[in-house]
Amino acid sequence: MKTWKLSFLSLLLLSACSNFTFRTHISPEIGDVAARSIAASDVREFSVEEISRREKEFLGEIRSSYCQAGLSKPSPSRSLLATDLRYKTVGLGGNGYTVMECFDSNAGCNAYLECRALAYTVRDGSL
Questions:
Q1: What's the whole-model pTM score?
Q2: Separation in Å, CA 50 to CA 56, 91, 94, 98, 123
Q3: How far is it, in rounded angstroms, from Cα 36 to Cα 106?
Q4: For the segment 55-108, what is each residue's pLDDT rounded down to a tens digit?
């Protein structure tokens, strides 16, 4: 009985606030970054074998690299570059990508990593 009353009270409070709007001083750029992050969370990495079995449209080549300029900076990692590859895939209108190669170098950095990938729109609904 107590649970029922609590549920009813919660529903009543939520419906009372349904026409309430919030105004903030958050810049539109922060909203854009948040929207990109949410969209990028739906992007999936596929292996070459997986992507070959999917109904897809090729969108283009994407690259991501990271140079560790100082020892106090984070070292490059594939997961760090994967986040950037997801953002770039969304920028092309895609929802999937396949990493073709990653390589490291010191190229004037303490550590350097670069990945090259292909972006796709995967249509078969099996993401």
A1: 0.68
A2: 11, 22, 16, 9, 13
A3: 31
A4: 999 999 999 999 998 888 888 899 889 999 999 999 999 999 999 999 998 778
DSSP string, 54-113: S-EEEEEEEEEEEEE-STTSPPP-HHHHHHHHHHHHHHTT-SEEEEEEEEEE-TTSSEEE
Identify the burial level of 9 via C-beta atoms within 10 angstroms of its C-beta, where 0-12 means exposed, 13-18 middle and 19 or more buried. exposed
d(CA 93, CA 80): 21
C-alpha to C-alpha distance for 51 and 101, rounded to whole angstroms = 15
Residues 6+ apart with CB under 8 A from 88: 62, 64, 119
Sign of CA dihedral 58, 43, 123, 32: negative
- The arrangement of strands across the sheet holding 96-105 comes to 44-45, 96-105, 111-122, 56-68
3-state secondary structure of 27: coil
